[in-house]
Design brief:
The complex is a heterodimer of chains A (about 220) and B (about 300).
Chain A: E1 22-26, H1 33-40, E2 52-53, E3 56-57, H2 66-70, E4 73-76, H3 88-98, H4 103-116, H5 132-144, E5 150-154, H6 162-177, E6 181-185, H7 189-195, E7 199-203, E8 206-210, H8 214-219
Chain B: H1 21-59, E1 61-67, H2 74-86, E2 91-96, H3 99-110, E3 123-129, H4 137-146, E4 150-154, H5 157-199, H6 201-209, H7 214-251, H8 273-296
Helix pairs in contact in B: 1-5, 1-7, 5-8, 6-8, 7-8
Chain lengths: ~220, ~300
């Protein structure tokens, strides 16, 4: 994969995530973690090679069908991508609203989820009034509210304290238990090690390791 | 202390901000262009009316020069000619001009002193023609000959061609200027809409990545920008209507000047402006949204 005419940021990356699996995506800054996630959540297209999602080659999927595929993918963006003019509640409800759900069918789920991520008292707050950590938890709530088949998170614990990081990790594990495939890009080595989950390790755009959690193995 | 949030009473908020400071400049630009387009439309209508007036004034009348014969006095010959012409089909009225009026017409060329009583000054008969079925010059000539009157009929055909050509140029010039301004207004509305759309790129991206279909996003922005442009079109049209009404009131029945007479009915021409502005903005927003989604996809 490359941006415009620039050099390739990802090459020779071959892997398959089993449905219901949980992986961390690790690697130094500039390794290509965010680019890899963008390819999976269909924000970018590969310059060569193929990507299969839910057993379908994404390049063969008609543009009109792509939104339906995106609804099955929950994404926690590194820069949050919250809509500043919408309340915290509205931001979380957005994917359900776009999917055509009726407010009465989902508003209690949204409220429950916001309470779970510690934003019960901030439901009507606008994103610009939230702290970095609160925004991050809001972005996570939005990503998981639709019970996606795949959850992609780009540094989801980058702006929260350890207690909240563990809480968020617990939420991801819970979702994974319910059948969601989880892939989390993180450079929080402690969190990765503590999770014990397998790792995809990228370096300079290449996949260097897939499957084993080095820190966990080293510690055991 | 902040008010408790009641999820049971929650209703989805608008996906686009109700008010955006950037929309103000869009509304202003579109309003100004709509105002200019409406003014030129009113100008074009007034020019068309003026051009029509010039030609109808000339085609609606004729002048007959009567020369007395034998013992008949010039006044008697003119009176007989007027009587004869009044009976011709297609003539509304024919009246002989008094000697003083004929002399007054010649005075600029001959001067007052030269007008001797014995100078055989021809008499004139002014003929008003029926505007619906005007009599032709040949018919008038034939009627005069049949009555034994020596006269020359001038139906202004020498001038009509020139006046009609001038009127046509004025009419087409006004229409061209209107079309030019209207096209420029359309182009600027489209450009301003696209620029404003670019400011919403992040919103479009979030909606797109959240699984919104292109049609969902397009409808959202189309409606938003169409509303803004319709409001701007309303302001522009209202401004032009006020100017048009003032021009009409200032000039009475003739409009501000006889050259560009504005009629009350002309003001109706600005009525479609909000709708047209909304349509242009909606199409521009639609294309811009599709373009942005295409880039994201």
């Amino acid at each position: 994969m490359r941006y415009g005419r620039a050099a390739e940021v990802l090459r020779d990356v071959n892997f398959a995530l089993a449905p219901g699996s949980f992986h961390f995506l690790t690697g130094p800054s500039g390794a290509g973690k965010s680019s890899l996630l963008k390819l999976i959540y269909l924000a970018e297209r590969p310059s060569r090679g193929t990507i299969e999602l839910f057993g379908r080659d994404v390049e063969a999927i008609a543009p009109a069908d792509r939104p339906f595929l995106r609804r099955r993918i929950g994404v926690v963006f590194q820069e949050f991508k919250l809509l500043d003019h919408l309340s915290a509640f509205d931001n979380v409800a957005l994917p359900l609203r776009i999917a055509g759900g009726k407010p009465e069918a989902y508003r209690h789920d949204v409220a429950e989820l916001l309470a779970w991520v510690g934003l019960k008292a901030r439901m009507h707050a606008l994103p610009p009034t939230l702290s970095g950590g609160e925004k991050q938890r809001l972005a996570i709530a939005r990503a998981v509210v639709g019970r996606p088949d795949i959850l992609l998170a780009d540094e989801p614990t980058g702006n929260v304290d350890d207690a909240h990081a563990l809480r968020i990790l617990k939420l991801f594990v819970e979702l994974n238990r319910l059948g969601t495939t989880v892939l989390i890009a993180s450079h929080d080595e402690d969190l990765v090690a503590r999770s014990g989950q397998p790792v995809l390790h990228l370096d300079k755009g290449r996949l260097r390791a897939f499957g084993r959690n080095v820190r966990t193995e080293g510690a055991s | 202390m902040s008010e408790m949030f009641d999820a049971g009473r929650w209703k989805p908020g608008p996906l686009l901000p109700k008010r955006d400071p950037r929309d103000g400049s869009l509304v202003f630009v579109v309003a100004v262009l709509c105002f200019l387009a409406c003014l030129t439309a009113l100008g074009a209508l007034a020019a068309n009316r003026a051009a029509h007036g010039w030609t109808s004034q000339l085609t609606g009348s004729a002048t007959v020069v009567v020369r007395a014969q034998g013992a008949e006095s010039p006044d008697a010959a003119a009176g007989r000619a007027a009587e004869t012409l009044a009976g011709v089909k297609g003539v509304s009225e024919a009246r002989a001009l008094e000697k003083e009026k004929a002399e007054a017409l010649l005075e600029p060329w001959l001067g007052h002193e030269a007008l001797l009583d014995d100078l055989p000054i021809p008499r004139l008969v002014a003929v008003d023609l029926d505007p619906k079925a005007p009599a032709r010059a040949a018919a008038l000539d034939q009627a005069l000959k049949a009555a034994g009157i020596d006269a020359t009929v001038d139906d202004h055909s020498l001038w009509i061609a020139d006046i009609e050509r001038g009127a046509g140029i004025a009419r087409w010039s006004a229409l061209s200027v209107f079309l030019l301004i209207a096209s420029a207004a359309g182009a600027v509305i489209a450009f301003a809409t696209r620029a404003a759309m670019a400011a919403h790129r992040e919103t479009i991206e979030v909606l797109h990545l959240s699984g919104a279909q292109a049609s969902f996003v397009v409808r959202l922005f189309q409606a938003r920008f169409a509303q803004a442009a319709a409001l701007a079109g309303l302001f522009g049209a209202a401004g032009a209507t006020i100017i048009g009404a003032l021009a009409r009131l200032a000039g009475g029945g003739q409009g501000l000047t006889p050259v560009l007479p504005v009629a009350w009915i002309d003001l109706l021409a600005v009525v479609p402006t909000p709708l047209l502005a909304a349509l242009v903005a909606a199409v521009a927003a639609r294309l811009a949204a599709r373009g942005l989604i295409g880039e994201l996809a």
